[in-house]
Amino acid sequence: MTSLRPQAGRQPGEASQGSVSGGDTVSNAGDGFERLFNPRGIAIIGASSNLDRIGGQPIRALLAAGYCGDIAPVNPRYETIAGLRCYPAAEAIDVRCDLAIVAVPAEAVQAAIEGCGKAGIGFVIVLSGGFRETGAEGAAQENLLARTARRAGVRLIGPNCQGMVNFPDRVFAAFGSITGELEVKTGGVSMAFQSGGFGFAIVSLCATEGLGFRTCVSTGNEADVTLPELLEAMLDDPGTTICGAYLEGVPDGRRLMAVGRRALDAGKPILVWKGGSSASGARAVASHTAKLAGRHEIYRAAFRQSGIIEVEDIHEMGDLFKVLEGGRLPDGNRIGVLSISGGSGIVFADRATAAGLDLADFAPHTAERLAAVIPAFGSAANPVDITSGVFNDISLFTRALEIVLDDPNIDQLALLLASIPGEIARAAATAIAGVAGATRKPVLVAWSVQRARAEQAYAILEDAGVPIVPTPVRLASAAAAAAVYAARRRSLAGRPPWPGVGDAKGVASGPTGAFDERRAKQWVASAGIPVTRDAFVARDADPDSAVEGLAYPLVVKVVSPDIAHKTEVGGVRIGIRDHRALLDAIDDVYRAVSVGAPSARIDGVLVSEMAGDGVESIAGVVNDPTFGPVVAFGVGGIFAEVFRDVTYRVAPFDAATAREMIAELRGRALFEGARGQTESDTDALVEALCVLSRFAWAEREWLGELDINPLLVRPRGQGVLALDALVVPLGA
Amino acid sequence: MTSLRPQAGRQPGEASQGSVSGGDTVSNAGDGFERLFNPRGIAIIGASSNLDRIGGQPIRALLAAGYCGDIAPVNPRYETIAGLRCYPAAEAIDVRCDLAIVAVPAEAVQAAIEGCGKAGIGFVIVLSGGFRETGAEGAAQENLLARTARRAGVRLIGPNCQGMVNFPDRVFAAFGSITGELEVKTGGVSMAFQSGGFGFAIVSLCATEGLGFRTCVSTGNEADVTLPELLEAMLDDPGTTICGAYLEGVPDGRRLMAVGRRALDAGKPILVWKGGSSASGARAVASHTAKLAGRHEIYRAAFRQSGIIEVEDIHEMGDLFKVLEGGRLPDGNRIGVLSISGGSGIVFADRATAAGLDLADFAPHTAERLAAVIPAFGSAANPVDITSGVFNDISLFTRALEIVLDDPNIDQLALLLASIPGEIARAAATAIAGVAGATRKPVLVAWSVQRARAEQAYAILEDAGVPIVPTPVRLASAAAAAAVYAARRRSLAGRPPWPGVGDAKGVASGPTGAFDERRAKQWVASAGIPVTRDAFVARDADPDSAVEGLAYPLVVKVVSPDIAHKTEVGGVRIGIRDHRALLDAIDDVYRAVSVGAPSARIDGVLVSEMAGDGVESIAGVVNDPTFGPVVAFGVGGIFAEVFRDVTYRVAPFDAATAREMIAELRGRALFEGARGQTESDTDALVEALCVLSRFAWAEREWLGELDINPLLVRPRGQGVLALDALVVPLGA
User: Fold this and answer.
1) Residue bearing the bigger pLDDT, B430 or B643
2) What is the CATH number of the domain that holds B587?
3) A118, A83, A80: which is closest to A100 by C-alpha?
């Protein structure tokens, strides 16, 4: 791992890290975040002589950590604090400070920021709370802070945050438990958190499991600097090899996606844990598409589209940091497994298979060569049980590793070492480090022994960059996630980025008012998606001329601005085979609706040709406040609601993305001709989804929701057909 | 935790633990496993003077651990080993040994067992490998060992196992890494493993996270003593408070279920990790039911039916040990959450909600009282964010705990402490211990700080029996699993046990030969499940008399012993409305089948009344080699295969069990009248499933597989109707 520790002779904050960028205002801060992460001096506004207090904790931590820039406490009540000269105001500081930590009461924060601006300080971390989190008045105060900072030429982190730590440079510009974590190993992991206490707990626990950290920032209320902006700055930091974030929401989803794509280009994975999934799904909206779309599912789709890796627990995040930070990715999803205990191979296989890895059969040559190395009571098939007997002759262990890694059917290798300790562990580690150095394939280790019982072995593997995870199941999950990430990276490489970062969203200009089925279908047809041939018959009109040219069998559906679910009020008749039956059906519909929905305004009926065979799907659009237009696609009919088998992508997108959507459905086999059915026209379906995504983007200024339900996917060669549609403009 | 450490003056192995049972032979071993777990002396047959070797490791471990019984090495080549008198043969031992460890080459094991029998030793642990795991010849040798042991009056653990450890009594009768784990804390957790190396790695890792252990046994090939038998013995052991197992398969599934039910009665939870799920599902069988039934799903159903808790990773197992071992269970699934960091409350809520817990609203009174305690920037709704500010006055923290625990809407309380260290942690721990002692509700803690940074606080909570888990998400999973276990325990309390432990399984006596639809439906009807009214029309017979009394519309289906999937060869016509159409349909079917299945023998057609409305389901039976008859129930039609929404229960069972099956389906809403459909007759469905389960049990000697597909579940009051059926006798 690259170290950020200052070279001999270099001053803290000296710009040795290459150019950085990310700021968008001309300011004291310059055009990047280098001076935030690695300031030449730090002012503490509201410094406390009680080093247990919030205004004292950063001073104690900076001193204890050995930060080698200037520390400038600011408090008019003291001459010195902890032996440091204390200044009466920021403007009085006579050393070079790039960063100020503000720990004053909420009402004094604005003045503190102004003072920092005058003092030429570029970055201010506001620890103080009492703003947006307390209600509307606090939010107004917070907006004022942001404007003040902009005028003062200062970039503002927070308010209501826990600060920032740069471990290699000993910048402990924070309060709380992290200020006691002085022994955290330095490394290439940088993180940003929308919950400081929780974020620093992640760091603490991951450090316990051996991870090394670089820069970690608690973003608080994000009045000015946002989490995506900090992630961008971390991508630009040469010492950061991998990034992580805990977030609960971003105002501009497409900016986060752009950061994800930039991370793919930079070769630095971003792991994101999105909190708040359980609050989703409760929005009261009219269309099925929108009902099915929880906000979390849209974030998840955006992560997939932009190569961001989603995680859902601290251990999962830590394990993936370890597996990915070395930069080795598997070329495919085939994994070879060597265990010294049968059970660990089995549980690894269980989880790995469930997560999509393939415990591939070895090439015949491999099996022959392994048989010469493994005891009779072991197993030479994948997962290999080499048994602990191989440690009687460590060269046998080494041979087994080499043989499996040589196999052309294997993309990565997992070694399951149970809890071997001491000298055997050291010998095994030496062998693994040697073999790992001679291959490009990832070599991963699961090992449950306490570090204290195998100190040397851990050090050997860590020096060799071999990831160690404590359980076989966690290793299987991490290896599978790495394979998914590698595949996504390959697949996303050639795709166009999405438009719309920072773009204005819907403003409700464009079509307004109620959309009945006729009008909705016209928009669907105009988008380029085929709709059923049909004719409107007004309430008192003669149907004969209207339906001329339509081919029997026909369907009759009531047209009313007041009826959303036509079937439920008896407003639909199907399978009409002749003229007589058509007239009866129209009468039937009017009669049923007068009972089922007595107060509804009835415009007339829509007479449609009945569709032939096909698989019913549902395709739609929601205009999400964070991501803008999003396309949904899923299994149709009653099963859409019962199984919620729906997938999402941010619009617009290409055919490869549409194919991913289909492949993600649990019910994808329906389109492949399950159980003797005809194979569906998935090419036409892919085209329809792409067309819909472009339409959703083009009409984003007014289109709130769109449902094509059902979208009939007909047999190969026959295309798709929209049987019904619903449109809801923004603001309706 | 009760300690098994010998009292002053008591001899090791003295039967102070109450009566135990479990053995089923009259033998040296007596009638229980007390002398295995706590032997008065231990012989090591094949003792090695090199204490690194398998025959030396137990000697070194027993000496180092301070085992206070006699250690009797047996090896004719030595006078002494490690200062201990070495005997030439087991028969020569002149101290009281209850247990022998055998570490000799495979070919010498039989003689060693015989020697132990003569020496009056009751239990033999055979570490030696080279038996069943090497193939057919080894299996024959192993059978011989089992017979030898029975004749010699010896109970045999293994062969090919890693031994046994009783931590409180310092019995390290094992080899491998566990022999170095002398510092493992003693406690109430006992475990059995079908993979020794992996099992002891579980112990090692759980111990690192603070769990205390009692007895752990590696069962190896189980030539004699089986894992369920050992679990029973552990349930009988007064010092064991909770049991765990890693298993890959048992020969008699109903015996394992009986152990589960006994554990419920004993108030000692059993956690089982079943390895091998990924090997399932590949059996080539004829019926849909059997195709859908992976072996793992049947084990999972059996666990649910018998109150066994299934786990799938080491951490999950360790966390549940902690949460359950104190014996406090929540009365419902409502949980109150107090965090000092907003993010941890959110991720807890995400996982808890997904796992079925309810973050219930507090009673109005609670919210009022909390508002007086929590800072303005905190949150008094569940999950409560008390903020780290409450530690400025620890009495506020204590008050907040008490207020939430008092709330009648809360069944348990989770405290999320992020990574607070040192003195604050100690104060918080003292407050938590005090409050936990004054309530019957479970109080659980998530805490990510390194133990070294909060040693005192950990000790205070552990002494108070308050479980500590390192992450909020893991705590949410464990709390949810505890609530599920508690509910299952309440629900299983009154149910009858299953018959059939050790019962003879199917012997293929009874009906044989091919079952066409007619014959299969007769059996279904005889079981008490309504079938469609239908008539068989032989190939050249006149249909008119046969169909007399059937009401149109009708269905015609080909009857052939060679056609399993009638629709796929054109062998079905539906919606036949009159006599003319019936004759046409019969002709059509013959013509289509002569093309679609030209070589099939055609007996005739079955003419059935067409069923009305209803939800298509699939109900069936598989006769599992491990569990005997098992009933499957799932969503029907094409979706059965696409979504595999199927659930299982071991037969026979009662109505409550049948209701659970329906409730477990993802598609359960189909039966509740989803999206305007009529509510189904679930009472009739429940009755049909119970009837089917009794039929499956009664006919187990010959019934291999049975499919009712579809079983139409009609609207409330109209019952269920079997539209088609398939029966496959055992051995067909």
Assistant:
1) B430
2) 3.30.1490.20
3) A118
